[in-house]
Amino acid sequence: MIRQPLSSPEFESIARELLDDGHAIRFKATGRSMRPFILDGDEVTAKPVSATDLRTGQIVLYRRPSGAVAAHRLVKWSPASPSVAVVAADSGFTETETFSGADILGRIESCRRGSRTIRLDSTFSRTAGLCWYHTRPLRRLLKRLVRYCT
Fold first, then answer.
1. Residue 115 CB neighbour total at 10 angstroms
2. Alpha carbon of 140 to those of 62, 79, 93, 144: distances in Å?
3. Which residues on adjacent β-strands are paired with residue 87?
4. pLDDT in 10s for each residue of the chain, 150 residues
């Protein structure tokens, strides 16, 4: 069997349909933006989520304004005002992104790395992710210092 990657619109369509019907989906992560929590090649599981069940610090699967689908950490969210969501990549060197809460497809529950399953929706994981997010300025400074000193 040959597996061919789906285009972003195809993936979004299938993911939205399955998640809206209450099914979980599993897919292979690509890219480095969610390091160290999700690595390129990890098998990621997303589950359906309602706006009232979302919490700051969770990783969400969403449709970007460009039309691409991404998974990033929710850094600003209010169930009282679900029309605006703000996400950031865990790698920390890109800016935050704001979009409509209606573009959230689901919540990332876990990733499988080799034979290990890593929970990403626990209170500990959410807190660790937010702490990692808030250290972005320090990590940027350290990166510059290392470059400067070498």
1. 5
2. 26, 31, 7, 6
3. 74, 97
4. 456 677 878 899 999 999 999 999 999 999 999 999 999 999 999 999 988 889 999 999 999 888 889 999 999 888 777 678 889 898 876 678 888 888 999 999 999 999 999 999 999 999 999 999 888 888 888 888 888 887
Quote the tokens at residue 12: 């979004």
Closest CA relative to residue 106, chosen from 48, 22, 42: 48
pTM listed for this prediction: 0.88
The answer for residues whose C-beta is within 8 angstroms of residue 100's C-beta and 6 or more apart is 83, 84, 85
The CATH architecture one would assign to domain 8-149 is Ribbon (2.10)
Give the tokens for residue 22: 């209450």
47: left (phi over 0), alpha (psi -120 to 50) or beta: beta
d(CA 134, CA 127): 11
Helix (H) or strand (E) holding 70: strand 69-76
